[in-house]
Design goal:
144 residues, alpha+beta
Length: 144
């Protein structure tokens, strides 16, 4: 297999940088409550997976299913989650982000969780999004 050309390396670097910009813009929109801007980064046929063993653990096969799931989470919040990026790792079509989230539940309890989010891109859109979090904390803070 031949070594990649300078142009191929440069194109791959630009694509990774574009993907990082999209993730940062999506998280900034999420944190500011700009739902339209946040969702505009996702493909309509995106796949979302929230791993774990709590009531929100699920696999969604479309943006509509993802919106419904997020709506269920929001029902348990008095103050929306804000996400602070701790680490960000771009690789080919993926961006992996460690975030720290803070919110307040409807019971008035502070909610703080750490997330590992994996975002996969095709043609500049997020087509796959996986979230890993502390399942036992979610179960404790959001009783079914």
């Amino acid at each position: 297999m031949a070594d990649p050309t300078h142009e191929e390396l440069l194109a791959a670097h630009r694509k990774r940088e574009d993907n990082v910009r999209v993730v940062k813009a999506a998280l900034a929109a999420f944190n500011s409550g700009d739902t339209e801007a946040f969702l505009g980064n996702f493909s309509d046929d995106m796949h979302f997976q929230m791993n774990g063993s709590h009531q929100f653990s699920n696999h969604c096969s479309s943006k509509a299913e993802f919106i419904e799931l997020v709506g269920r989470v929001v029902q348990g919040l008095d103050e929306m989650i804000t996400l602070e990026i701790k680490n960000l790792i771009p690789s080919d079509n993926w961006v992996v982000v460690e975030t720290y989230g803070s919110a307040k539940t409807t019971s008035g309890e502070p909610y703080h969780n750490t997330y590992c989010m994996m975002w996969r891109f095709e043609n500049g859109k997020i087509v796959e999004f996986k979230e890993h979090n502390d399942s036992s904390l979610v179960e404790k803070m959001f009783p079914a």
